[in-house]
């Protein structure tokens, strides 16, 4: 089916230039035409959307998030990572039921769609959950992303955990829906060496990327040096971690040798600046990673450590932190940050056909209507406003794989009111 989105200003992020009074024609899930408005092209389109005055850009890529945690917003504020996890978050996650997890995941998807994310990379805690049922519910939302069973060493035993992770990953992979998967051991400190090795074997067997929290705090670095006599990044190298494409969430505390290894192996870093600030973990030096050639993507982490999934807020914070900590505004130019939150994210997650607006690429894009928004004036400086002035609440429409999933801020695939009701109901059961 052909759809036209027209009379809009398009930031392709393929090149720095903007297409003024432009048009995008989609055919099924792909972009068939992108360029100047041409009236006659409307004739053979089944659906037409007059987006006059709107700004259009690629959808944002949230490269590390925990969607089942949306019910934990506001829990455990003002705590360091380790007490936050062990005293607050993990005891609550142990009480999750499948229905609670589905509602919480849908709430996260509503929040992501409404704030401009079109692709996400998740890790969920599977304890006590029907993981197949959770996957079916997420698959029905029209959102695109990686949903991953998180492997932790626990009472169940490493072999049983690895089997369950393998089976759900195999099922998702075979299903070929909008939802894909990764193999996601939680971290080097919460998985035994055997479980980390099993994770690598599953990733190799099913040809999937690996996704793991790494080098998030000074404590993690010091504990790893004491226990394994090497850094977390190098410890994972000893376990053959880099034989598959790998996404490391965080990378706050890294040595020069770690950075060189990440570059050599093509590992991507999912940078979570607000979560790292809120948990008092520090500031990842993504300017150094960029200069070394490492692929850096942007992420929110969960709402329990952020406390929202707004990628616009995340981009602005990430850019300002680099300028401030390096004491030079050139440490993070605006265009580089927009690329990190789109194309670099897609690359990190293994999606080669999204992240820029280009013919032949997937039709994953969002619009912002700036005309009645005082904080997005003057209209002429639009490319600056996208990074330094806009927020997720400004997103008007969202298209994922050619499907319009939000029109003028109304979601078409999810019942937002019902999800709000259910989330508050389930919160009281915790
Ligand atoms: C929800 S699945 C994965 C697992 O990760 C925990 N988690 C959430 N945020 C972080 C973080 O910043 N570092 C380490 N672990 C984190 C979460 O509680 C889940 O149990
Ligand atoms: Zn995380």
UniProtKB/TrEMBL annotation:
<keyword id="KW-0862">Zinc</keyword>
<feature type="binding site">
    <location>
        <position position="216"/>
    </location>
    <ligand>
        <name>substrate</name>
    </ligand>
</feature>
<feature type="binding site">
    <location>
        <position position="66"/>
    </location>
    <ligand>
        <name>Zn(2+)</name>
    </ligand>
</feature>
<comment type="similarity">
    <text>Belongs to the metallo-dependent hydrolases superfamily. MTA/SAH deaminase family.</text>
</comment>
<feature type="binding site">
    <location>
        <position position="93"/>
    </location>
    <ligand>
        <name>substrate</name>
    </ligand>
</feature>
<feature type="binding site">
    <location>
        <position position="301"/>
    </location>
    <ligand>
        <name>substrate</name>
    </ligand>
</feature>
<dbReference type="InterPro" id="IPR023512">
    <property type="entry name" value="Deaminase_MtaD/DadD"/>
</dbReference>
<dbReference type="InterPro" id="IPR011059">
    <property type="entry name" value="Metal-dep_hydrolase_composite"/>
</dbReference>
<dbReference type="Pfam" id="PF01979">
    <property type="entry name" value="Amidohydro_1"/>
</dbReference>
<feature type="binding site">
    <location>
        <position position="64"/>
    </location>
    <ligand>
        <name>Zn(2+)</name>
    </ligand>
</feature>
<keyword id="KW-0479">Metal-binding</keyword>
<protein>
    <recommendedName>
        <fullName>5-methylthioadenosine/S-adenosylhomocysteine deaminase</fullName>
        <ecNumber>3.5.4.28</ecNumber>
        <ecNumber>3.5.4.31</ecNumber>
    </recommendedName>
</protein>
<feature type="binding site">
    <location>
        <position position="186"/>
    </location>
    <ligand>
        <name>substrate</name>
    </ligand>
</feature>
<dbReference type="InterPro" id="IPR050287">
    <property type="entry name" value="MTA/SAH_deaminase"/>
</dbReference>
<dbReference type="InterPro" id="IPR032466">
    <property type="entry name" value="Metal_Hydrolase"/>
</dbReference>
<comment type="function">
    <text>Catalyzes the deamination of 5-methylthioadenosine and S-adenosyl-L-homocysteine into 5-methylthioinosine and S-inosyl-L-homocysteine, respectively. Is also able to deaminate adenosine.</text>
</comment>
<feature type="domain" description="Amidohydrolase-related">
    <location>
        <begin position="55"/>
        <end position="405"/>
    </location>
</feature>
<feature type="binding site">
    <location>
        <position position="301"/>
    </location>
    <ligand>
        <name>Zn(2+)</name>
    </ligand>
</feature>
<keyword id="KW-0378">Hydrolase</keyword>
<dbReference type="InterPro" id="IPR006680">
    <property type="entry name" value="Amidohydro-rel"/>
</dbReference>
<feature type="binding site">
    <location>
        <position position="213"/>
    </location>
    <ligand>
        <name>Zn(2+)</name>
    </ligand>
</feature>
């Amino acid at each position: 089916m052909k759809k036209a989105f027209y009379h809009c200003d398009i930031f392709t992020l393929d090149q720095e230039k903007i297409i003024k009074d432009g048009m995008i024609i989609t055919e099924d899930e792909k972009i068939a035409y992108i360029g100047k408005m041409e009236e006659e092209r409307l004739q053979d389109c089944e659906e037409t959307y007059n987006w006059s005055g709107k700004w259009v850009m690629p959808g944002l890529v949230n490269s590390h998030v925990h969607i089942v945690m949306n019910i934990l917003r506001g829990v455990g504020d003002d705590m360091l990572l380790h007490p936050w996890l062990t005293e607050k978050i993990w005891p609550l996650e142990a009480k999750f039921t499948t229905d609670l997890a589905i509602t919480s995941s849908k709430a996260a998807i509503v929040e992501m769609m409404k704030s401009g994310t079109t692709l996400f990379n998740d890790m969920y805690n599977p304890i006590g959950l029907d993981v197949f049922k959770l996957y079916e519910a997420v698959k029905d939302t029209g959102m695109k992303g990686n949903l991953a069973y998180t492997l932790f060493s626990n009472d169940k035993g490493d072999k049983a955990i690895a089997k369950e992770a393998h089976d759900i990953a195999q099922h998702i992979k075979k299903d070929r829906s909008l939802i894909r998967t990764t193999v996601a051991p939680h971290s080097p400190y919460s998985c035994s060496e055997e479980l980390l090795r099993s994770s690598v074997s599953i990733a190799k067997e099913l040809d999937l990327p690996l996704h793991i929290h790494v080098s998030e705090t000074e404590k993690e670095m010091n504990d790893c040096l004491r226990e394994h006599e090497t850094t977390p990044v190098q410890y994972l190298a000893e376990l053959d971690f880099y034989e598959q494409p790998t996404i490391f969430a965080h990378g706050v505390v890294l040595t020069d040798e770690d950075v060189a290894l990440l570059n050599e192996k093509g590992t991507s870093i999912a940078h979570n600046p607000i979560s790292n600030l809120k948990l008092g973990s520090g500031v990842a030096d993504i300017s150094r990673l960029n200069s070394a050639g490492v692929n850096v993507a942007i992420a929110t982490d969960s709402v329990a450590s952020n406390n929202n999934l707004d990628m616009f807020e995340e981009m602005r914070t990430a850019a300002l932190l680099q300028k401030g900590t390096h004491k030079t505004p050139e440490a993070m130019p605006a265009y580089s940050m927009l690329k990190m939150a789109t194309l670099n994210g897609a690359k990190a997650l293994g999606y080669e056909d999204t992240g820029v607006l280009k013919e032949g690429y997937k039709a994953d894009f969002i619009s912002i209507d700036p005309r009645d928004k005082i904080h997005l004036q003057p209209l002429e400086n639009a490319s600056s406003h996208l990074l330094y002035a806009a927020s997720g609440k400004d997103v008007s429409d969202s298209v994922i794989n050619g499907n319009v999933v939000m029109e003028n801020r109304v979601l078409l695939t999810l019942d937002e009111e019902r999800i709000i009701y259910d989330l508050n109901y389930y919160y009281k059961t915790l």
